[in-house]
Design goal:
single chain, alpha/beta, Rossmann fold, 4-stranded parallel beta sheet, 6 helices, 15% strand, elongated, binds zinc ion
């Protein structure tokens, strides 16, 4: 699942990238032209006027705040935990993160972090270093909370196979 989000939804784009989704931001206009539909790609916007294109790949969100928008996307597109790949992508650049050795991050992260963490990742574009359970910890909890809520809402619903473990 990939996303193309309308420019005012930059906050939501960061959440989606944190979840591991390939997310591009660009301004959309009801006057068109709109990007061509692409397989497995959803267009997210707040502009109700885009409904006139009648396209199934355009999702018009109702929530105003990024966190609520994330919950809305996860719920409406029936995203399950298995679809997520937390912290695999730079929230700023959308680039896939690459693993770094501890030696390679020496001096680039706070000493306490270097001593207590084993896994590090780097964005090849902006060189930002990521590690589990750090500045992303709070976000991670919120994503799981959002998913918890969305799966409860769909419990007893149509797709039990999505939640079962293979
Ligand atoms: Zn980056």
């Amino acid at each position: 699942m990939k996303f193309l989000v309308d420019a005012p939804l930059g906050g939501l784009a960061k959440w989606l990238r944190f979840c591991g989704f390939d997310t591009t931001v660009r301004p959309l206009s009801a006057r068109g032209p709109l990007p061509q539909p692409q397989a497995d790609t959803f267009i997210l916007t707040l502009q109700t006027s885009l409904a006139r294109f009648g396209r199934g790949d355009i999702v018009i969100l109702r929530a105003a705040a990024p966190e609520a928008q994330l919950r809305e996307v996860l719920r409406r597109l029936k995203v399950s935990r298995r679809d997520l790949d937390l912290m695999s992508r730079c929230v700023k650049c959308n680039e896939a993160l690459v693993p770094l050795s501890r030696d390679a991050v020496a001096g680039r992260v706070p000493e306490y972090i270097w001593h207590t963490q084993k896994e590090f990742y780097e964005c090849p574009a902006c060189r930002r270093v990521y590690w589990p359970g750090s500045h992303t910890d709070g976000i991670s909890r919120k994503v799981h909370a959002a998913l918890g809520r969305s799966s409860r809402r769909s419990a007893g619903g149509k797709s039990p196979s999505q939640r079962s473990t293979p």
